[in-house]
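Case 486 in the screening queue. Each case pairs one protein sequence with one candidate compound; here the compound is flavin-adenine dinucleotide. For every case the pipeline is the same: read the inputs, emit a complex structure as tokens, and attach any notable structural observations.

Predict complex for case 486.
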Amino acid sequence: MSKEMSRRQFCALGTASAVAAIAGGMGMANRVNAEGEAEQAVKAHAIGDGNVNFSQEVDVLIVGAGISGMMASIDPANAGLNVLIVDQNSMYGGDAIYSAACQMCSTAQLTKEERPEKYSSPEQIREKFAPYYVGNEAGLDRTVLLQDWTGRFIDKMHYEWGYEFQPLRESPYHQAFFPKDGLCTMKSEFDLINEKVTEAGVQYLFRTTFKTLITDENGTICGARFIDKDGNLLDIAAKAVVLATGGYVSNQEWMVRYAPEYAYVANIISGRKGDGIAAGVAAGGVLSGMKATSNLNPRFEAGHMLGTFYPLIALLPNGKRFYCETAVHNAATGCLNAGFYEWYSIWDDVAQNGIDQEVILHAGEAVQTCNSIEELAEMTGMPLDKLQETFAKWKTICENQEDPDFGKTLFLQELKPPYYFLRNYPVRYKSLGGLKVSDRMEVLDANDAPIKNLYACGCTAGTEDITPAAGSGMLLGTTLVADYVG
Ligand SMILES: Cc1cc2nc3c(=O)[nH]c(=O)nc-3n(C[C@H](O)[C@H](O)[C@H](O)COP(=O)(O)OP(=O)(O)OC[C@H]3O[C@@H](n4cnc5c(N)ncnc54)[C@H](O)[C@@H]3O)c2cc1C
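Case 486 output:
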């Protein structure tokens, strides 16, 4: 493709800052054709940028090397397409690689085999979720579809690629799969996924930040613009562009607009500004499902996730328990609902010497130690009399094996000094909603028509959590093969 042609015929669409301008028709101009009729044409220049100048051409250009983008890349590359994944980071993995790695899935063959009581067929999923989607049949269909693909992800990892998830442990989360080395050890899964990505012939380009989509003279998506690691513009031509840049939890303006409940809760994630979502909107896409996510996280995963597998109690600054500690996702929201902005998680040698060392390491020096309840009171500022009361109550709960306050049924075990404790606070860590997509992960316009050559997956397409992101990427992989091979 000649660079001169590119300069004249292509238009780079703006992202976040330019969305409003583009929605208002910027970038289009009237011109008169040979017959003297007025026609609308795309101006051959980039909005607020230099001219388009393609220096590389691929079949499929995936923006974002998170789990959704990586999973989307494999089938098209195996089918012979030239696939490039571009990411602003210097490493693949996105958010999931340093997540707690709790992979919810009840639809896998592996679920059926290992933990049949947690397995649900697509029909059962439909029945289970129907009450949440009254009057929204399309929403229910999408949930059933994505749940099905979460199972395909787990099964691909296990049966096809030979990954051994951690064997089932005593926990309330038997519908969750964990990596073989325990909490927060997603790296082993990513190493395998990366092996499959590179084996398929996919190329990566890191430290390169997505800026805008590029359209040709007909307004059809034909590539994307980036800023490379040295600060230069980089225009890449592509037959298909996949937006997989994750969600928008770092975009404060959007949080205020779409998820005001959590907008003023501390944010733990940088670089998820919704760049892909904004670019999709600039290209004519529409937003869907933009609202607050289902839960918040603690600053340190150890503070809640250890409660999944070990005896642990969590106390508010007033020294009182406030949630069932095995229902880990109620910690941060429960703390806020109780009117506090911090809490303490306390465990003993059982968890400290357990197999989940990585999650403890993630908390670093935030984990403190003490040898008595008195010391705990002194080091945390929790009132000693309340702490003594709570520990005495906990002893009774353990003796009776019954928790009348919060209904906890697992790990009702007295804690023995030394105690390990962590001061935690609620943070926001994910967003919900994104670009409206079809069941084939095509980005849809306001008339529900697919925007040619533009696709999205993962949080950019409104999924929440690891397995739906991975599954939506795989689903998109099959679409790309169908649309661009043979
Ligand atoms: C601390 C934490 C703990 C979590 N724990 C769990 C858990 O236990 N279980 C669970 O199911 N989910 C968990 N999640 C959520 C889960 O990690 C995400 O839902 C999932 O990783 C989303 O995948 P994705 O591919 O859609 O996006 P991401 O993982 O966000 O990947 C997007 C990629 O796009 C890149 N990108 C963004 N903008 C640009 C740009 N302009 N240019 C170039 N590249 C760009 C990013 O660098 C990133 O690599 C957790 C998240 C966090 C942050």
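Case 486 observations:
- The chain has 16 helices and 22 strands.
- Confidence is low (pLDDT under 50) at residues 1-8, 15-48.
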